[in-house]
Design the sequence.
């Protein structure tokens, strides 16, 4: 009997690369070829050009990169960009997780309604949403009028064209990118796990902290990476609701390329941002590697 | 002995207009193993979720060891539960899974270590501490789930079709294992299953459910030999049904007329309705395949029929016989493989016989 009981069950072991091996190798290649081609022409080639532009003028010339390092203004723009992206990611997580949790625990119809609300926010143009924040936050905007009428403040506050406004508006725009992956992760956690934790003596909050939260971490990771990377390269919203004190890398690159026509420097800034972003993703991945062991919850 | 009494008092659960469980009451003694048996949709899982505390009953009361827990949260009931798909936490090792309930109860580190080692020893999984659930076979996962549910020695253990996901051989081995662990620890067990063999093998008593109600509660022997309704009769084991009509003689004894010329005397003690049957009332006569045997077709007590098929099933032989009675039903007769009767030709006339206490009589449902 012991031999029967200790026999490994083949089904419970996962084949590495299980889903890909359903198709033959040539077919797999054929299926991804169009996208690969598009990416090569539309993405890899320009990036190659960009990097070349930043390094050669036409001889090897590192002066653009030297400029980034030597002039404090550019490093501080870089630092501000990362700071804003970090705050936006944290704010999106803090606001988005409860929404995802509520969506995942709602009954079918209400969950669909909540998902629709999130998707409508996702689909409405960024430009419109950014202008909406101007309407809300400007000197004679909704927020200031309400506060002065209620007597909370005597003179209108300066709510817009500062870092706070940029963070609020960007959080609003990026929230769906945080909510949806977390929602997907939470939805895939069987209710039985929570039930099991409860019968084993965990209260509702302990069951959440010990079971639901750790199992949703892959979704949290995906959401955070998406938010952070999108925030690093954000252009429209900071340009509209930000002020002179909130210059970030994307805006700076735009200025250099279109206003000052300093293409090598714009290219150097872009390359630096790209490398910094990739580094951050790798660091994130490493930090969240605890989630690898159970990436496939079934 | 860690088991405690589990009492259900007229427990009901309604979801909107549908009734999932209706007025179920029973009392389980400490250390008793009770299976809740029923087809899907019979309310057995709903009953279990109410005992566990995931669903509040619409009415009725649940008490454990005399303490009313109807309104208690699942984590305040001190119940162990093994889920259908085990529900092992995938982000925790075997050790962490089994230690989880101990941690929740704030046991200190050495006590946790000691208890986990002892329970893993009991389920024969020593040395698997650091494996993750997805590195274990189905049977091993099942035993981890049992260990996790039992490590705190809960007075009541609930099991929701815990062997449903295993193949047949492993399931049978695990049945014995569960029985061994349960009798060693003495926990009171409520075991939900739709598998009648499993219920019969494991249980001290079986509760048969149908359509949300408890239709019979009794020992496996009672359930099998003295079914109280046609549903229980056909759900547990095999059963032949023959239509008939009650005819009372001068002494008031009920005989069942199953055709113009054939009358069967039935005195089965389980057919408690037999005494209440009225003259001429339509009834269903039930008899198990293994209670029937062949007799001379022309003998006075034999039920005549014709052989329809003869099947060799290994341990026994199965004969299908078309009866020459109302509706000409086909009945099954099961005889030991070593039996000397036959072989029969198809269509050959035979007579069937059963002892009168092997016939069960049920009032036919009103048409």
Sequence:
């Amino acid at each position: 009997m012991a031999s029967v009981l200790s026999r490994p069950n083949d089904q419970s072991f996962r084949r590495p690369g299980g889903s890909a091996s359903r198709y033959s190798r040539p077919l797999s290649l054929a299926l991804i070829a169009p996208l690969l081609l598009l990416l090569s022409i539309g993405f890899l080639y320009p990036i190659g050009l960009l990097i070349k532009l930043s390094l050669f003028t036409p001889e090897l010339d590192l002066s653009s990169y030297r400029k980034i390092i030597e002039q404090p203004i550019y490093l501080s723009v870089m630092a501000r960009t990362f700071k804003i992206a970090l705050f936006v990611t944290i704010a999106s997580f803090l606001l988005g997780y409860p929404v995802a949790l509520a969506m995942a625990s709602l009954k079918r119809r209400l969950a669909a309604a909540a998902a629709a609300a999130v998707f409508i926010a996702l689909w409405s143009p960024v430009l419109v949403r950014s202008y909406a924040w101007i309407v809300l936050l400007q000197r004679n905007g909704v927020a200031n009028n309400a506060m002065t009428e209620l007597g909370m403040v005597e003179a209108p506050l300066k709510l817009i064209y500062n870092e706070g406004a940029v963070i609020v508006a960007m959080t609003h725009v990026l929230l769906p990118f945080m909510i949806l992956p977390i929602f997907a992760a939470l939805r895939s956690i069987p209710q039985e796990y929570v039930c099991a934790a409860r019968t084993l003596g965990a209260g509702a909050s302990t069951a959440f902290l010990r079971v639901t939260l750790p199992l949703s971490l892959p979704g949290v990771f995906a959401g955070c990476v998406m938010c952070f990377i999108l925030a690093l390269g954000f252009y429209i919203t900071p340009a509209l609701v930000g002020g002179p004190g909130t210059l970030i890398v994307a805006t700076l690159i735009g200025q250099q390329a279109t206003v000052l026509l300093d293409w090598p420097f714009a290219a150097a800034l872009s390359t630096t941002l790209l490398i910094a972003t990739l580094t951050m993703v790798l660091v994130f991945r490493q930090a969240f590697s605890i989630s690898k062991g159970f990436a496939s919850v079934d | 002995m860690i088991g405690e009494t589990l009492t259900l008092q007229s427990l009901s659960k309604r979801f909107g207009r549908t009734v999932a469980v209706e007025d179920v009451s029973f009392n389980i003694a400490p250390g008793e193993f009770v299976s809740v048996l029923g087809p899907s949709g019979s309310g057995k899982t709903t009953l279990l979720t109410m005992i566990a505390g995931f669903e509040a009953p619409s009415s009725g009361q649940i008490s454990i060891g005399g303490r009313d827990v109807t309104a208690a949260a699942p984590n305040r009931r001190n119940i162990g539960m093994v889920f259908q798909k085990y529900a092992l936490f995938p982000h925790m090792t075997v050790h962490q899974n089994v230690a989880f309930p101990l941690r929740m109860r704030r046991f200190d580190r050495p006590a946790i270590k000691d208890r986990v080692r002892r329970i893993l020893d009991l389920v024969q999984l020593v040395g698997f501490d650091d494996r993750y659930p997805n590195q274990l076979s189905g049977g091993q996962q099942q035993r981890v789930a049992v260990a996790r549910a039992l490590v705190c020695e809960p007075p009541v253990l609930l099991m929701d079709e815990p062997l449903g996901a295993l193949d047949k051989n492993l399931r049978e081995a695990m049945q014995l294992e569960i029985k061994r662990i349960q009798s060693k620890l003495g926990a009171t067990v409520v075991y939900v299953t739709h598998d009648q063999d499993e219920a019969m093998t494991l249980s001290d008593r079986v509760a048969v459910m149908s359509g949300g109600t408890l239709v019979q509660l009794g020992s496996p022997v009672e359930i099998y030999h003295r079914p109280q309704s046609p549903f229980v009769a056909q759900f547990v084991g095999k059963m032949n049904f023959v239509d008939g009509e009650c005819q009372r003689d001068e002494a008031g004894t009920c005989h069942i007329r199953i055709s113009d010329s054939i009358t069967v005397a039935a005195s089965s003690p389980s057919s408690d309705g037999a005494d209440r049957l009225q003259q001429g009332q339509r009834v269903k006569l039930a008899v198990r395949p293994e209670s029937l045997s062949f007799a001379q077709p022309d003998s006075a007590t034999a039920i005549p029929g014709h052989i329809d098929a003869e099947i060799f099933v290994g341990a026994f032989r199965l004969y299908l016989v078309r009866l020459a009675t109302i509706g000409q039903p086909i009945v099954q007769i099961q005889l030991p493989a070593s039996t000397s009767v036959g072989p029969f030709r198809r269509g050959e006339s035979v007579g069937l016989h059963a002892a009168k206490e092997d016939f069960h009589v049920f009032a036919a449902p009103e048409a």
Summary: Chain B touches chain A at residues 52-54, 73-75, 77, 79-81, 83-85, 87-91, 100-101, 104-105, 124, 132, 134-141, 143, 148-149, 152, 158, 169-170, 173-174, 177 (CB under 8 Å). The CA atoms of residues 133 and 141 of chain B lie 6 Å apart. Chain B has a mean pLDDT of 86.
